[in-house]
Amino acid sequence: MTEQKLKKIIESILFVAERPVSIKELAGLTGSFIPQVQETLGQLIAEHKKSGIQIINKGNFFQMIPAPSNSKFISKYLTKTLGRKLTKESLETLAIIFYNQPITRQEIEKIRGIDSESVLHNLQIRGLVTQIEHKGSKGLPILYGTTMEFIQYFGVRNLKKLLEGGKIKLESRKGTSEELKFELISSKKKKRKKKKY
Asked: Residue 38 — pLDDT band, cuts 50, 70, 90?
């Protein structure tokens, strides 16, 4: 496969994907080596910097998002489609998923300390959270992650900037902001030890 062909295929996959796609998955889909995919992604990121659609990454996962400079117009569209403000419970759950994805419902509930089934259901209806895959363990629990709509709604240009001084700040495109104060679990080991109340 030529370099140009690989670039077009990866670009197309990222365009239609409703969730972040890993380098490993892209390599498997295209039958390419991981270094080839990494190099191609670097080229695509550079090419899309001045485009209306940009490519961002969190670790080894990549996703296409609208250019932040167009946020005003995206806001008008999303205000109609997403409707009312999110509840505190929804924002808290979103923050947990965002920082720990992919994550199971059971792991979310260990952090929150309460049942989260209905909150997860509502977030999926609004297109902010999606089921990614089943975890490779007994019972095959479902893994959840955030969607491109989540990125668009909160206007996340640099995902790392959401974390500020031990708080998670989620700023919506509607010009409002919410801060959620809760203890961040620094490792999976700590999360497993967290008790329900």
From this structure: very high
What range defines the domain where residue 76 resides? 71-193
Which residue type sits at 19?
R
Q: How is residue 71 written in tokens?
A: 């946020």
DSSP class of 183: P
Is the pLDDT at 148 greater than 80? The verdict is: no
* The last residue of a domain, from among 66, 95, 115: 66
Residue with tokens 């109609």: 80
Both 61 and 80 in one domain: the answer is: no
Angstrom distance (rounded) from CA 79 to CA 29? 35
Quote the CA–CA distance of 87 and 84 in Å, as a whole number: 9
- ∠191-159-188 over CA atoms, to 5°? 15
Percent of the chain with pLDDT over 70: 68
